Amino acid sequence: MEREYMEFDVVIVGAGPAGLSAACRLKQKAAEAGQEISVCVVEKGSEVGAHILSGAVFEPRALNELFPDWKELGAPLNTPVTGDDIYVLKSAESATKVPNFFVPKTMHNEGNYIISLGNLCRWLAQQAEGLGVEIYPGFAAQEALIDENGVVRGIVTGDLGVDREGNPKEGYYTPGMELRAKYTLFAEGCRGHIGKQLIKKYNLDSEADAQHYGIGIKEIWDIDPSKHKPGLVVHTAGWPLNDENTGGSFLYHLENNQVFVGLIIDLSYSNPHLSPFDEFQRYKHHPVVKQYLEGGKRVAYGARAICKGGLNSLPKMVFPGGALIGCDLGTLNFAKIKGSHTAMKSGMLAADAIAEALAAGREGGDELSSYVDAFKASWLYDELFRSRNFGAAIHKFGAIGGGAFNFIDQNIFGGKIPVTLHDDKPDYACLKKASEAPKIDYPKPDGKLSFDKLSSVFLSNTNHEEDQPIHLKLADASIPIEKNLPLYDEPAQRYCPAGVYEVVANDDGSKRFQINAQNCVHCKTCDIKDPTQNIVWVTPQGGGGPNYSGM
What we know:
By secondary structure, the protein is an alpha+beta fold. Helix content is 26%, strand content 22%.
């Protein structure tokens, strides 16, 4: 079909920290050089920040470079970190506080801020628009525009007003547009669906280790003012997880008597009976956490997968006509559990390379090799190099053994220990058979500290039009019941933090696999953890999904 089109110098997919930093930098470089660069950012969420979820302790290093006057400009960094508490939880009741000396240096947070990353993205979007960037929320990039020579020439946005069968709805149908560009940057976040396709098409990961992921589940609580300690950062390792199923938690005190509380679980976990959501709910009952939350009120809920493979898992960054940036590439620093400043820096480096190419009169379509060169010469590369072993050490040696290795690597060798650990087993391949793993008896939620999935999804303000096509596709519809159910007790029922997947009994006693796609919070866990890689996450209609306010 003939689609309408718009032409830009640069199209950026995703209005997160990476995409917006790239957009701002492009306009800054253009102003410096007295040239005109047209920049368009598309964002599938209903507004900028609607899909953004992060811890978030924020390191301002990249922001200092992008907007040195961010304080004067009113950036929402209001709560400086005042202290770091780290505990090893030994059981449901006991804990040991880790002395500061034994904490890897990367886990110290002096000079950082506790922020809502969604609010920072909204502020970055205001700066970008002030510089002349066009931002279109509610428009989902459906696919990359690739010409007959294999060059990326922009993107196609998804059709709007389509029914469950994919037919146009009378009076509502608006076909997607082509947004053509000399260069296209993909900043879709972790496991971005077009990023995933581009990695496959251009074989970008041929020399990289397998990417590894975690799922982060997070809530915001209003707590009793007498329990509030603005700027306090609390991290835990250990219970309710163990060496075969690793992860850790965070509890951050921000302003206005609020705390962020969350659990990150490595998606390399082996027990198919494990439910990350339920692990998080019971974790909140531990005395270390309960002391702050008791008597408080839960006001928000969300979940998101996290790329944590680090430097060893980075695919090739460029292809003809464009590049991957931020978590679409996988730049999170797992040793710091931070990915916002690294995402921002990757976007700025890509923007510098594009501005340079356009200033030289290039018409696009080439590979941005200067982005790769600048990355290798930057503090971003140095930071990722120093943390390259962090995740692999925990996978290989467990939480305690891996923690000891990381202490030696980070505190004694400064991240430059003369050995590089590799972990090539993808997360989805780590599940044991259901018959080989212990069942887990999760306590019922009490409605005060712990809750069920449906009431949680309600708090995420998730919405998809009911009759649009299901965006969670099965490559083979028979696999969930015929293969995953007998082998793994169909783990999608548990790893999804929104209750999207259910095994339901038919009237005749047979079983069917039900997908409640309206509940989907776009975390991407199913696309990552399904043991048969049978579930494929594709973009729903623009504007659908969670609408996070302060995440």
